[in-house]
Design a protein that fits this description.
Blueprint (H helix, E strand, L loop, with lengths): L3 H15 L6 H5 L6 H17 L2 H24 L5 H14 L2 H4 L11 H16 L18 H13 L8 H19 L6 H21 L4 H25 L9 H12 L6
Helix pairs in contact: 1-4, 3-4, 8-10, 9-10, 11-12
């Protein structure tokens, strides 16, 4: 089995060589800003491999993701800001510091019995750490604006829930969803639909749904990706079935399309 420290150092050396004066012209042109789309792309490729439980693909995609991290750190090191070693040390120190129930039990740290208790303790330690900063970070300030909106809604709910601002039960969130659906319905009763009001109410509905996912222990981005994939798979199968008859979807009625859809849904191979 490969030795992790040796292979990690080899990757660092390769990236430094690519950035050297006689290295790769493309790699030498990159900046931390130009690398952003590649970081995002690799993130989603990791998630796709996880969704598929494709372990060989996941191994490869994690390697690609790690490469992007080392590449960004190399650019920062060249600019004199920090090295990849600094980044690794930072996260290792943070993990030890925020898990006193694991690493400092001999100092009287209480044992935490649940994931919720751990999360609350993590946020409490994090808040304590922020006190020394010139501009203390708020509880929600640590949720990146650049996250996909559904995932950000989920993380906002996690942070708010960590201090007790939370629905008691998942069924209570369902009631909130029903309330938001009623408000969307009320918008639609007007002869002229207000686009701004519709956007607001649909946003509130999506936020409530993200929080129901959280209460159920379901990560909403993953759930929606799987739903998207299922719909696309079934729709493509329906499209193929219709094409085999010599017809096109555009010439069919909605009732005919729905009948074809139900046929595909009933096929156990379509999931």
């Amino acid at each position: 089995m490969p030795n992790a420290p040796d292979e990690f150092q080899r990757l660092i050396d390769i990236v430094a060589r690519l950035r050297a004066p006689d290295g790769c012209p493309w790699d030498r042109e990159q900046t931390i800003d130009s690398l952003k789309p590649f970081v995002l792309e690799e993130t989603y490729e990791v998630l796709e491999a996880i969704d598929a439980h494709d372990h060989p693909a996941l191994c490869e995609e994690l390697g690609d993701f790690l490469f992007e991290a080392v590449f960004v750190a190399q650019l920062e090191a060249e600019a004199g800001h920090f090295s990849i070693a600094d980044a690794v040390k930072s996260v290792a120190d943070k993990l030890v510091r925020r898990h006193p129930h694991v690493f400092k039990r001999d100092e009287g740290e209480p044992e935490l019995a649940s994931a919720n208790q751990v999360r609350a303790r993590w946020e409490a330690i994090k808040a304590q750490e922020q006190k020394g900063r010139p501009t203390p970070r708020t509880l929600l300030g640590g949720v990146p604006d650049g996250l996909p909106a559904l995932l950000r809604a989920y993380q906002i709910g996690v942070r708010a829930g960590s201090v007790g601002f939370e629905w008691a039960r998942p069924i209570d969130v369902v009631a909130k969803i029903e309330e938001e659906v009623a408000e969307v319905r009320e918008v639609l009763t007007h002869e002229t639909v207000s686009q701004a009001r519709a956007e607001e109410e649909v946003g509130d509905l999506l936020f409530a749904i993200a929080n129901l996912s959280r209460k159920l222990g379901v990560e909403p981005e993953t759930a929606l990706r799987k739903a998207n994939a299922k719909f696309a798979r079934r729709f493509t199968a329906m499209e193929g079935n219709i094409a085999a008859t010599g017809r096109t979807m555009a010439e069919m009625t909605l009732d005919e399309l729905e009948a074809e859809w139900q046929t595909v849904k009933g096929d156990p191979n379509q999931g």
